[in-house]
Design brief:
With 662 residues, the chain is an alpha+beta fold. The chain contains 20 helices and 17 strands. The chain has a five-stranded mixed beta sheet, covered by helices on one side. This is Protein kinase.
Length: 662
């Protein structure tokens, strides 16, 4: 049969066999490919292969066929019993099977374009005397004979998909894996040949006594599940990474756990200490990844997504868990790219953050626009998740996207940055204090000097009103700064401190419920609305997957330099409570955390405070239980809520007020 591959004809034939001197049968396989329009432009490949190679190709392509969900049923190997493999009838059936398998593969581009299929027809992979010499030496090594393997006897260019995965899982044991598998097949050939020499009997006896070893069971097929646990685990991990890239966290979690189970069962009886050591390292790595997925995305998760864009290395998803009607499916937030022309840039607020106004709306309202770069074609897989309706976080109003970029249109926090508001209040009050002191001195001088000129009743009355107004402002705001060794320590009224601490706590927890780790939360992320309510700048999930590595978004340099980022790696949900503690430190103390901890954070065994500054015991306790360098020792959300500092707080009321601010 010659499959038509969209204008190409692919034909296979198995025309001849040879018996190798090592005792196994080689099959001559011919592949002919030519375009239908130009039959004379054909390509012919001829390779000699053992049936062991056919079964290996079947095993690899069957897994690929299943993982990709391709149509049809792949032909299964027949007459695999090694006792009959030299019978002419069995050889004839195997020839027919090889042709049927290759014809099936040729109907699926994902199979015949795979590395395994290309390698199968590579002339470099044809058995050679050097390889057989290595096999024979390896066999003798297992029966106590001397072994001197020459490194140049192995063709390093011969690779298959299994080779690549095994090298990744067990990079130091690749030669041992191949050597043992070849010895197993060599042992089969000797047993099947029926030779009765002393050497053959000693080899057979030695192999039989080691039947408990996975790679040396002479009566087992090379497809044995035990002998292939490495490959099976690698396939599960590969599928898990792909599922994670597609935001299918249930499937990713299941596959990570399945791969770990395969390694656990396989290495339990593995007598190779080095391989077991590496397997355990992989088990620890992927088990931690599975647990992280469960903690972030599956355990009590309130995250529901609608996939907006999905390509080979990019996934954009929108949170729709808070939408209650069909119109609010999440897709309505996307605007056509050409609508970007409606917005005029007024100012640059930060890296990839713009202040814009809509020129087509009557009042020309202002918004914030934030840019996200999409990955290039050769970049790691990237996933972007956009949460919605987070209490005390600026709301996402719309987004625009091209092939290279995404722009988020966000609500403008009219009160600006919280820290700027606090600084301005403290500085203005400091000036008012100085003015008041100077006015008091002037009044005293006027009382003492009898010859003072007449200032006039209007000017005196105006001065009195100004002093009274400033005094009332100071009393109402209580933003009274202090100076220590020339450094201004700003002060925040207690009711503002309590309110902002509560609101920030609720916002962080709401993002955690959507499985979003903030990672680099810092003071510049704290904003205020027109009513002095706290608003968090917009946070979204932006993470990447490269091979089996999990990559978080790039961290803000300012947050890193000023110790807002937790010291542990990788960052987890608990890492954000460190950032929360650093922010509370600055609000409580009136001084940046870095100012009291100028060195590396791991140099400090406990939280440092400026001298001559009194911090109430309750506040100190909260800070010190948040700023623990070991994540497990930090307070989490539930324990923070129960802390004495937040006694008598109505958390439901706080949360509801957060939704009302949007």
């Amino acid at each position: 049969m010659a499959p038509d591959l969209g204008g190409w004809i692919h034909s296979f034939a198995v025309t001849d066999t040879q018996t190798h001197k090592a005792g196994f049968t080689l099959y001559k396989i011919t592949s002919i490919v030519f375009p239908r329009a130009v039959p004379q432009a054909l390509t012919t490949l001829v390779v000699w292969r053992r049936f062991h190679d056919i079964k290996k190709l079947h095993r690899e392509l069957k897994r690929r066929h299943k993982s990709l969900g391709l149509s049809g049923y792949m032909p299964e190997p027949i007459d695999c019993s090694f006792f009959k493999r030299f019978d002419q009838d069995v050889i004839r059936k195997r020839k027919a099977y090889i042709v049927s398998l290759l014809d099936f593969v040729a109907q699926h581009p994902a199979l015949y374009k795979s590395h395994s299929f290309a390698q199968f027809f590579s002339s470099e992979a044809t058995p050679s005397n050097k390889i057989q010499k290595l096999v024979q030496k390896a066999a003798r090594s297992f029966v106590g004979r001397s072994l001197e393997i020459e490194t140049d006897t192995v063709d390093s260019s011969v690779k298959s998909r299994e080779d690549i995965i095994i090298a990744e899982i067990f990079p130091n044991d690749k030669d041992e894996y191949e050597k043992a598998e070849d010895v197993e097949e060599e042992g089969d050939a000797i047993v099947d040949n029926g030779k009765s020499s002393d050497n053959d009997n000693s080899l057979n006896t030695s192999l039989t006594t080691k039947c408990n070893l996975r790679f040396l069971t002479p009566m087992a097929s090379v497809e044995s599940e035990d002998s292939d646990y490495i490959y099976d685990a690698a396939l599960e991990f590969s599928s898990a990474v792909q599922a994670e890239a597609n935001l299918d966290y249930n499937d990713a979690y299941t596959r990570y756990k399945s791969g770990v189970d395969i390694l656990l069962k396989g290495c339990k009886d593995d007598l190779n200490d080095d391989r077991v050591y590496i397997a355990r390292a992989k088990i620890s790595k992927y088990l931690a990844r599975a647990e992280d997925i469960h903690e972030r995305f599956l355990k009590n998760s309130q995250r529901s997504i609608a996939s907006i864009v999905s390509t080979s290395n990019f996934q954009l998803a929108l949170d729709v868990s808070c939408n209650t009607n069909s119109e609010s499916s999440g897709f309505y937030l996307e605007r056509p790219w050409h609508h970007m022309a409606k917005y005029k840039v007024n100012a640059l607020l930060g890296n990839k953050v713009l202040l814009v106004s809509c020129i087509t709306e009557p009042l020309k309202p202002q918004y914030v626009m934030k840019g996200i770069e999409k990955p290039s074609s050769n970049s790691p897989t990237q996933t972007v998740f956009l949460p919605q309706h987070i209490p005390y976080m600026v709301d996402l109003l719309a987004f625009f996207q091209s092939d290279q970029k995404i722009f988020l249109l966000l609500k403008l926090a009219l009160g600006g940055k919280l820290i700027d508001y606090v600084h301005s209040k403290n500085l203005s009050n400091e000036k008012a204090q100085k003015f008041n002191e100077e006015e008091d001195k002037s009044s005293d001088i006027c009382k003492i000097s009898k010859d003072a000129p007449d200032l006039g009743p209007d000017l005196v009355e105006s001065s009195k009103q100004l002093i009274e107004s400033v005094s009332n402002t100071i009393n109402e705001s209580e933003f009274i700064p202090r100076r220590m060794n020339g450094i201004l320590l700003y002060s925040i009224p207690q009711h503002f401190l309590k309110k902002w601490s509560q609101q920030l706590l609720v916002a962080i927890h709401a993002l955690h419920e959507k499985s979003v780790i903030l990672c680099d939360l810092h003071m510049d992320n704290l904003l205020l609305d027109e009513n002095s309510q706290l608003l968090l700048s917009y946070f979204y999930q932006n993470e990447g997957l490269s091979s089996d590595s999990f990559i978080h978004k790039a961290l803000n340099p300012k947050a890193l330099d000023n110790h807002f980022v937790a010291p542990e790696r990788p960052l987890t949900l608990r890492s954000d409570w460190w950032s929360y503690g650093v922010i509370l430190y600055e609000l409580f103390v009136g001084l940046p955390f870095k100012a009291a901890h100028p060195g590396q954070i791991d140099l400090y065994g406990f939280v440092q405070y400026p001298e001559n500054i009194e911090i109430p015991k309750v506040k100190r306790n909260l800070l010190e239980r948040l700023l623990q360098q070991e994540p497990e020792e930090r307070l989490d959300y539930e324990r923070i809520k129960q802390h004495e500092y937040f006694a008598d707080t109505s958390w439901e009321e706080i949360k509801q007020q957060g939704f009302n601010t949007q």
